[in-house]
Amino acid sequence: MPQSLYRWNRYTLENSPFDPAVAEVQYPPDLGLEPLHLSVELAIDIAAQRAAGVVTHTVVARRAPMQTLTLDAVDLNVTAVADEDGRKLTWRHDGKKLTIRWQDPFALGEERRVAVHYAVEHPSAGLYFSQPDDAYPDMPWYAVTDHETERARHWLPCIDLPNVRTTLDIRLRADARFTILANGYLVEERTHDDESKTAHWRLDQRCPSYLLCFAVGEFVRADDGAFDDGEKRLPVAYFCSPLHTADDLMRSFGRTKPMLAWMTQKFDQPFPYPKYYQWAAPGVSGAMENISLVSWDERYVLDAALAAEWSWLLDAVNVHEMSHSYFGDAVVCRDYAHAWLKESWATYIEQVYREENTSQDEALYVYYNNVENYLEEADNDYRRPIVHRHFQSSWDMYDSHLYPGGACRLHTLRCELGDDIFWAAVRDYLATYRDRVVETDDFRLIMEKHSGRALGRFFDQWFYQPGYPDLKVTFEFDADASRGVFTVEQQQVNATENIPVFHFQTAVAWRLDGELHTAPIRIEQSHHIFMFPMSKPPELALFDPAGVVLHKLAFNPGDDLLRRQLTDGPTVLTRIHAAKELAATGRHANLQAIVARTKRSLFGACAAKWQKRWKRPTAPRRQRDSQR
After folding, report:
1. What's the pLDDT at 610?
2. Does residue 1 have a pLDDT over 90?
3. Residue 559 lies in a domain
4. How far apart are CA 423 and CA 368, in angstroms?
5. Does one domain contain both 507 and 556?
6. Sign of torsion, CA 61 63 64 66?
7. Among candidates 285, 281, 287, 282, which has minimal Cα distance to 256?
8. Main-chain dihedrals φ then ψ at residue 476, nearest 5 degrees
9. 20 to 30 A from 24, CA-CA: which of 235, 375, 392, 509?
10. Quick check: pTM over 0.85?
11. Model confidence over 167-213: pLDDT tens digits?
12. Among 8-12, 465-469, 620-624, the least confident range
């Protein structure tokens, strides 16, 4: 990291979870012994809040000699560890880590299997139990997992970081009356004489620990048939507690198959996994993209009354989690420094889905809210690079920089390259890195291959350094010269943080006699003056009217032009900008114009409905709500 960049970080991140003075630098672990397959065999006792059994790791030596495997295993009761072929080993569990050491070193490429026998009771995270009690007599019976980012370790001995991915066999035994769900496809389900049953689920694709999932308990089921992705037919089904009905499930998730059709066509990729199930339970936080088994807080299962208010939110979350099947599940970030490769993408796909299934203005309104949510955090809390290795907890990375901040930068990149190049490169990226781990440079190089552009500067300024363009724009009409003059100043260059000049392209526009004229401009300095011939004063004067670049904008070309922009602006972004600038004047005529416009504006009436990012946690899991 250049020393100058460290100074930006130190100032903008002081007293934040990302402050390099207090937060250690984080890297993915070495994988001298790499787990390849995980076999989970557990008996689930919901009444006792207990799981017990054996987990068998198949590991391979990526270098030699190797003797030691260290697993994350927090507060587990480990009773035995044994090599499946009888090789001698020793082990030690210190309450957080399980260290296994073989007497004889591995040869290069050698595979071995090691079984960990253990139990967990009342786990503090990762695995959650529910049953009726005196205070909540209607609570359903369930045992479910929820792992992001590093919570699998509280019930599962594993390397609990995303660059470790294994195929899965999951065998769960529970009361026969319960539904048993897990990743992958159902191999078999067997009943036993003691009124219990065992379900065996298998996932042939490699899965990081945070995406491993099971759900055992009382579930209502709604089957939604099968989705044909062109290569296979995927069963689609939804599950919830008896607090809701199958009709509620269909009302909430019944648009899933059309979303799958849109997404597989958009990415030109078959769906990566053998099914698409979604389950919901009360008390589960937000929504989570577990491979082939998405989980939801049951508050999002809608009755008829709530559907009128929240269906738009359900659809946004649904398409977000679905897109993770590609960005995050099939293509996995190597470590959390690069988590934008999944969360920024999933957030941006919400905007793209609106663009192609509702309207461009609605998509731009999603973009506007993403910008506002990112700027709120960047201006009031801290400014950090999107790609950042200094953090106290990986969960701290899941902020408004990661979700809306990264999504806005993807939109800027798309506008910089153009749709044809951008989407062709995205499809190539998904195909090239399917079932692999990636870092930001992997994505950049694919973009460079398709565009013929050297994008180092773009990624440096937008992803590896903090901040954004803070622009002050003015417009004047020069009657003597018959020209309009736009002045653009990057105000962040003079700020205390010393955030440098951004290089980007956008456009200015003006309207004469009802005709809108647009001129591209390139910003490469802290101060620019752009002059364009105009026969008379324009009816509108606009900066970045299409919203092609992330920025903050101060631009008041005059109250008369702004009041006209409020009604005639060509995009929702220009109309919102006019309303904000007019409101800032505090003048009665301007406020009255805003009131009149809002009364007949779809986006004015709906503005209060758009919440902040629904997947950003603000408290420990037990307190989290829809902000996840």
Report:
1. 39
2. no
3. yes
4. 22
5. yes
6. negative
7. 287
8. -135, 145
9. 375
10. yes
11. 999 999 999 999 999 999 999 999 999 999 999 999 999 999 999 99
12. 620-624
Tell whether 434 and 503 lie within a shared domain: no
Which is it for strands 276-281 and 293-297: parallel, antiparallel or unpaired?
A: parallel
Q: Are residues 424 and 537 in the same domain?
A: no
Contacts of 88 (CB under 8 A, 6+ apart): 102, 103, 104
Residue 96: closest CA among 78, 75, 77, 113: 75
Cα 617 to Cα 628: distance, rounded to the nearest angstrom: 5
* 16-22 own/partner pairs: CB under 8 Å, 24+ apart: 16/381, 16/382, 16/384, 17/391, 17/392, 17/393, 17/396, 18/382, 18/384, 18/388, 18/390, 18/391, 18/392, 18/396, 19/390, 20/390, 22/392
Q: What confidence tens digit (pLDDT) does each residue in 175-188 have? A: 999 999 999 999 99
pLDDT at position 495, please? Answer: 60
- How many domains, in total, are found in the chain? 2
Q: Enter the tokens of residue 75.
A: 């507060």
What DSSP string runs through 103-144?
EEEEPTT-EEEEEEEEEEES-SSSEEEE---SS-TTPPPEEE
- What is the end-to-end Cα distance of the chain in Å, rounded? 32
Least confident of 275-279, 362-366, 621-625: 621-625
What is the domain range of residue 458?
A: 334-464
Residue 36 covered by a domain: no
Q: pLDDT tens digits, residue range 47-72?
A: 999 999 999 999 999 999 999 999 99
In a domain, 314, yes or no: no
